[in-house]
């Protein structure tokens, strides 16, 4: 209950709270002052009545001095009656020096009740200082002798009536004062808190997001300074908001552009991947289609060789017997050499076709997860060279190889390693300038000291900018993305080499070419290469 | 003060040689005015003296003291001392500062200085103020002797006194009522405790106010009550007069040959406001009373 009451109190506006506090304080102060005034006035009335009674008693004592001295009861009663006409007197009682009542007049029987306001005055003989002896001897003597007492019971009814009237008047004045002060307080508070209301209203608008709103408080007081500060903050917030909006737009546009580029790159990679897949299938199909006629051609060649082997002695004998005869436009002595070369060429060409096709099939359909312990890196390098040379048959690139004859066998996947070397060689060839030195060097070395074999591919091309070196093994990083590069070659190569517990290092200087070296351990890898 | 010292010195030089215990001073009680009177007498008379204060004794027997001490003169200071001293029959008594003294009933051995100023002084004042018929209330037992002297002096001065007898202050209002019918020009208050008492004092002045009569009194305090003029006896003069009487007795003059004297020197005090209200002119009084004061 208390909590809810305080909550309700705290929900009042600042103006209402101040008004309530001031009104209550004014009411309390007014009540205190009114009660104090009434109390003081009541005391004053009593004092005044007592003073009036004292004056009347003094007057009566003087009037009664001689009658009391002479103990003239009739005169005492007459003098008392003359004083009794005053309304402030409720009763009069006069006693002589022996305490006997000489006269008593009363308006009511209860005039002498306990608690009644009364005054008692002693009646004495005149001051004997005025006696002849005292005057002649020049001395001040004590007061005269007591010859009686005068008791006045005062009429407090007049006080009650006066107090009732005064309380009504004081209440009306107090309420009027309280209402007037409250109204003045309200007007003053309204004037004082008007700026606070404007301030709060403006803050509310700004907090609600209306940053164009401004607080119109023009004075130089605290509220005016607060309004100016809040206006400045709103302007700053507005500028920041606009700046943020602009930056967001720029970021969205940039992201959109990057997404478009990324999409383009992904689509190019997908297309390339699809093309490579199709190419693989085409190669496989072509190999199958080539192998059949090539087998026929090879069998025909072998048959021709056998035929030639059987026919040559006969033809030799005929030539000896019948002389040199013409065969195919050439003398038999010349023709037999050409025929032998032709048959041999057919055999070698078919063999070569078979090997190329076999390599193509192995590249496209071979078991690429096969792990072998007798991998000859030189042989793998030759296979890769064959592929690259076939790819760059029409170009003028000179690929020089220096293969270490003492290179030990290593453990690994020859197909994956071949793919690595092929990628390195293709990158080296594709990085060569169109004119000038177009040479690529491939070298294998047996590194005895750390029991590794190394394969180095070097070209004399433009080199790689230093800022690109840290990103060479990142996926989809390529400077030839528009020329069909996928950005996956070196990423895959590094993946394969790392899978073989090896490492790949790059060395390049702008204008001096690039050298890529892979190091592979000769011991068996603890884990199988990447699949 | 300077005059007083010179007078005292002169008196001392002229004093007769006194035998041992010449003066027995009986003082009613310890009061400043009595002490002052004793000092003045001792200084002025230059006689050997002994002072007895009655209030310091439970029972004061002056007769026994006189028999034992045999003083040549008993000096009574105050009313009680006078009342005690008047019992002596042979030893000369000089009294002072005693108010109620019936001079006619005094024995021959008793003399003194009354508290009345000499009537001549008053009569001069009345004449000067053109007050020819003066009412006076008195008690014959107290002021009878003085009134005889006053009447004599008044007759000489051409002023008519209208005396009314009162035996107590209670009779004052009635006496004043009677006086109203006697067409007096002024009211003369005398130091008579029966005629003038605190309880009857207002009656005097109310009557005077009602009848527009000037009141001439004997003490300055009554100026405040409404008296127009006051002749106040000089205590120094009173002491000198007392000493003169003592010296005469010591010099061999019989006490019976002496008489009570009034104060021959008085100071005049006036209330100008009352005089103006009554239309009295106070000018010229300074010639009559050199020590005139207002």
In the predicted model, the low-confidence regions of chain A spanning at least 5 consecutive residues are: 527-531
Most residues in contact: chain pair: A-B, 19 and 26 residues
Written as H for each helix and E for each strand, in order along the chain, the element string of chain B is: HEHEHEHEEHEHEHEHEEHEEHH
Helical content of chain A stands at 55-70%
Strand order of the largest sheet of chain A: 8-10-11-13-12
Low-confidence stretches of chain B: 12-19
Reading the helices and strands of chain A in chain order gives HHHEEEHEHHEEHEHEEHEEHEE
| Percent of sequence in beta strands of chain A | 5-15%
**CA(first)-CA(last) distance of chain B:** 20 Å
Choose one word for the global shape of chain A. rod-shaped
Chart the SSEs and their pairings.
The complex is a heterodimer of chains A (531) and B (294).
Chain A: H1 2-10, H2 14-70, H3 73-83, E1 89-96, E2 101-106, E3 118-124, H4 132-137, E4 146-154, H5 157-207, H6 222-322, E5 326-327, E6 330-331, H7 332-365, E7 372-375, H8 377-391, E8 398-402, E9 410-412, H9 414-430, E10 439-447, E11 452-459, H10 489-499, E12 503-509, E13 513-521
Parallel strand pairs in A: 8-10
Antiparallel strand pairs in A: 1-2, 1-4, 3-4, 5-6, 7-9, 10-11, 11-13, 12-13
Helix pairs in contact in A: 2-3, 2-5, 5-6, 6-7, 8-9, 9-10
Chain B: H1 2-14, E1 23-27, H2 32-45, E2 49-53, H3 62-69, E3 73-77, H4 79-85, E4 93-96, E5 110-117, H5 119-128, E6 133-138, H6 140-157, E7 160-165, H7 172-180, E8 186-188, H8 198-211, E9 215-217, E10 229-233, H9 235-250, E11 261-263, E12 266-270, H10 272-278, H11 285-288
Parallel strand pairs in B: 1-2, 1-3, 3-4, 4-5, 5-11, 6-7, 6-8, 8-9, 9-10
Antiparallel strand pairs in B: 10-12
